[in-house]
Amino acid sequence: MVTNISVKPLPGPKNLFGLKNIRNISTEGFLKFLSENWQEYGDIFQVQVGPKKLVMVIHPDYVRHVTMTNSDNYLKLESYDGVRKYVVGDGIITSEGELWRRQRRLMAPYYTPRGVQEFSEIMLRDTLAMTERWEQLAADHAQVEMFDEMALVTASIILKAIFSTESNDEILEIKEYVETMIAYASSSMNNPFTLPDWLPTESNKAFWKAHDRVHSYINEVLDNRFAMDESNYPNDLLSKLITSQDAETGERMSRDLLRDEALTNFFAGYETSARTMSHIWYALALNPDVKAKLHQELDRELGNEAPTLDDLKRLPYTLRVVKEALRLYPPAPMYAKDVVDDDVIDGYHIEKGSVMMLLPYFTHRHPDFWPDPLRFDPDRHAPEADKERHAQAYHPFGSGQRICLGNQFSLLETHIMLAILAKRFDPRFVPGYEAAFKFGGLLVIENGLPMILEHR
Ligand code: HEM
């Protein structure tokens, strides 16, 4: 409880029940609304949207407070009910308390920098398969929708990593059904006036069809796995999850939890990586000097053969390009935490029941931490520069104990994809193209990213 009378109320636009904010957000878009309010109110401000008080958190000190110093007060509670109910169930991305702690302990070893190397073969193989398809498209100077291209590869990589799925038809089918589930969960969370999910509306029917198909797919894979001798298990994440045991209790995960964790990994891990790759192509097309430096590194260090894990160590600039795209265009531009109890941040009163919106998109453009913040400059991520910067000035994967479990997976995946694809291809904008970014749970180029494929 906050009793100190010197505590200040948070700044922010004040209006009756937040209706004016809702109107402004829907006419101008959330990105413009937030940018203007950041200019006006500074690095922490409160916005009433309908019944909810949202606290926008931008300064790295405040990010540290919420995700580390006082993280027990900022949990994933009712803000995540939609995604919990409709997509991930008890999966680690929204679980809390003892369940979350146990699952994180069990799963962490598979996602360390060394742990994720086990998946590098899949990443290499799938990217090389894409280059074969692109060879022909580039010979025809064909136009592609870059996000769709990238999503095809990242969905295939993660489904193979989790389930050893080899069938392209199955990969496409599951990807599309999970997309339907995610879209349904996010529209149910954004719209307080949705009809009950059991009514036979078109969108409810489409959701339940997708839900049932995805669940029955995973159940089938689980049935097959349980029918096998463990010594014959394929080396994928599902096998690791099935056989992992809690060190203290010796317990294994229940079948339902295995399904939820498998689905969580797919949910969390494919669109984010696909958006990262799309943003990289966008940034390279806008910044020819960076592109030239990237090409120089790739041409100097790689022959005509596919790169190996060892080769990647000699491609530091390539990885910096990935990191810089994650800075300027973070695929998860905001993430939320529910406030358990009243608190004070830098003298401001944080009210119990409000929702903290952590905003990497804006932290990453803060001029006190990023000189000339709008310039795309991969060398900001040289090791010395990283060391000197405030650790929370960069949080594309979140921060603290709930930092993205898959961050090393996606850095390895995008490093490999960029190295292979940029060595051979140079996608260009279609004439007159201008991107329109839309800010939500994910940062999306709303008008798509059509590009012309060219050989280098
Ligand atoms: C560039 C790609 C990615 C980005 C930007 C990203 C971003 C994030 C963010 C912002 C969070 C939430 C942090 C919080 O709430 O405090 C998160 C959590 C998580 N991510 Fe990622 N992610 C990416 C890729 C992946 C991949 C590839 C996987 C799986 C292979 C994955 C699995 C997870 C999981 C399981 C969590 C929940 C961790 C926990 O709560 O303990 N992510 N991610």
Detail the poorly predicted runs: none
Structural class: alpha+beta
Bound small-molecule species: protoporphyrin IX containing FE
**Number of DSSP E strands:** 12
Largest sheet: 5 strands, mixed
- Tertiary shape: globular
Tell me the series of helices and strands, N- to C-terminal: HHEEHEHHHEHHHHHHHHHEEEEHHHEEEE
Supply Rg: 22 Å
Helical segment count: 18
In the sheet with the most strands, the strands line up as: 1-2-8-5-3
CATH superfamily: Cytochrome P450
Average pLDDT, rounded to a whole number, is 93
**What is the CATH architecture term?**
Orthogonal Bundle
CATH class: Mainly Alpha
Approximately how much helix is present in the residues? 40-55%
Task: Please supply descriptive tags for the structure shown above.
456 residues, 12 strands, three-stranded antiparallel β-sheet, binds protoporphyrin IX containing FE, five-stranded mixed β-sheet
